[in-house]
Design goal:
This protein is an alpha+beta fold and about 375 residues long. It contains 13 helices and 10 strands. It is globular. Bound molecules: adenosine-5'-diphosphate, 2-acetamido-2-deoxy-1-O-phosphono-alpha-D-glucopyranose and magnesium ion (MG).
Amino acid sequence: MAGAEARLQEALAAFDFGAPVVGALRYGKGHVNDTFCVHTQPDETPCRRFILQRISPVAFKKPDELMENIIGVTDYLGRQIEQAGGDRGREAIQVLRPRSGEAYFTDGDGCAWRVYPFVEHTVCHQSAETPELFAASGRAFGQFQRLLRDYPAETLHETIPRFHDTEDRLAKLKAAIAADALGRVKDCGPEIAFAMAREADCSTALNALRNGELPLRVTHNDTKLNNVLMDEKTGEGLCIIDLDTVMPGLVINDFGDSIRFGANHCAEDETDLNKVSLDMDLYAVYAEAFLEGVGGVLTETEIRYLPWGAKLMTLECGIRFLTDYLEGDTYFRISRPGQNLDRCRTQFKLVSDMEAHWTEMEAVAAKHLPK
Ligand code: ADP
Ligand code: GN1
Ligand code: MG
């Protein structure tokens, strides 16, 4: 299949942007979808922008179900935001349908494209430069969880089956090792050993789910800092984006994925592992803000399991990067050879750090248990 650029003009023509399109440029730092920022020039008003995305055909096999989820969730969030006196046009993403009236456009390769109006006067951060910023993102993700607590979970499709099933992720890694399609296993001895030594960990949250200790809730499942738009004036989290993986899941995973990405001072693909470490202050700040945003609906067990959310999301993400490296980088977009192996290494370094700080991580959680 050709790159997204080959179908860009076709996709642009499928939507009515309300004014002439003057350009469309690649945008953002997402690893999975192909994102473009579309600039239009209305007659008398300033340039209006839109986000145009080709939904990854590798990650998402059923775009109709995915878009049904997104329309359901964004309509629901919009109503909640309106009832609370907020601005639904800025605080929730909105879907601009193509001229056909469907939820998305299908190009000649069979790939799905969708459009969202650009939420202006916001900032999307790639790293938590200050604790205040990280706390604001935590409140926003926590509040997202709270707003969706009564959403009819049974109406949501599973857009990626077994998305945060860490046991299954490890099984897929084992299959990739056995296949060794590109002869890369020989470069990954320590990383493979690291993952295998944590096989029992991979079952911890799933066992707690299976035995009823942890409940399923409607969760975001991809709570990276760059999936929340911050208000440029107030610095508060304004709009949660990237809703492709909103599905029933574990709230500890939403907490944990934010920690994985944000509670350190390095990019995911940092090659100097000496620089990669868990920042316990950021961890504590995020925990407090996330729980404040969630607003008291978590059970004691969920709070106790928060450190596991952090460790398992980080371990799982490392396993996924490693699997993709072994399979030839077909899932996570790369801009240089070896990038997915570098990403795996940062994740595993963070896991080691979490293991070293485990007692402190548990103490942070304990501080937030009901007295
Ligand atoms: P991916 O799934 O590839 O991560 P995202 O939906 O997160 O794709 O979009 C990629 C980037 O595009 C985001 O990190 C953000 O910078 C920007 N973005 C996405 N939607 C909007 C929007 N509605 N308004 C402004 N920026 C957006
Ligand atoms: C992907 O799409 P993006 O870049 O926000 C991935 C996440 C990973 C993350 C690692 C649908 O997120 O699960 O944690 O990369 N999204 C999907 O950075 O697989
Ligand atoms: Mg994203």
